[in-house]
Amino acid sequence: MAWARExxxxxxxxxxxxxxxxxxxxxxxxxxxxxxxxxxxLAAWEKHCRKFFEQWDLSLTGFVIDGFAPGLSPEGLxxxxxxxxDGIVGQKIGRQGVHQGMPYLRMRTDLDGQPxxxxxxxxxxSRGTPPRxxxxxxxxxxxxxxxxxxxxxxxxxxxxxxxxDLYTLLWLVREYETNQTCRPVSPYANARExxxxxxxxxxxxxxxxGDGQFALVERNGTRCWSVPKNRYLYLDVDxxxxxxxxxxxxxxxxxxxxxxxxxxxxxxxxDTKSAMAGAYKGGPKAISRTATGQWRKEVFRVxxxxxxxxxxxxxDFRFHNGGDELLIRAVRVRKME
Length: 337
Hints:
Strand content: 25-35%
Order of helices and strands: HEHEHEEEHHHEEEEEEEEEEEE
Number of strands: 17
Structural class: alpha+beta
Distance between the termini: 59 Å
Helix content: 10-25%
Shape: globular
Number of helices: 6
């Protein structure tokens, strides 16, 4: 670490690695501790991290790895705020915010593959109402990989997307979250519905990545999302459109009835007893395709949406394709009276 510090350039930034000054799941340090039954270990962890953070002039934790542990409790966040005041990136945490002056941001997704592929995913994730603060993880990539990614992203997005160091990114999150009067007014704050198509996002954006693979194709003169078998189409609702507890919504799906297979919905719900603490609650029905070759519309009425971006890629809901290629031309979300 001393060698790296001595040779740093103006382009080098140092942050703590997984969870802090050591690799663990900090959610298991707070009570109850299911594996050990011991008292809380949070104070010991904070003392240990503070020593090394001060020694190496660190004030930001690049990734709090939760694994199968619970996410950080309020007490856990407070501990990090004291030794990592410039911020943390987490897995099981709110999308973004500030806790006792410490900004936090949830990791969006993993970036892998060729630089052009990763840049395309970043570009898709950046779509929607600005500003959108994104942090992603990549593993064991050469410096040239990042150079090529940034060049490709600039080709796709121009100056609409900026890559910054992690300290600057989390500083921007803190400024945005603590200066409410400076926020731009979203056009969807008072809207009755949002919608998305492959050509346009009106408050509803399709998100690529991981098991959410899709291609853009044309069928019968219509541009569609093509979802392979056993994959998902993830969708993100504009944050200002809906707040948890605001009442039921209708999710409307327009698809081409070709091939066979079931289409199911899973949505981010306030029902914490559902799958993954409510992140993947099943929709009220399943659709069985019958190969009529016609465009179909199906409406799912859900009474307890949360839409806090708790699914993969910070999506709010997803459709699963359980059969042949699934072609979707539009999705809408409508507030109920």
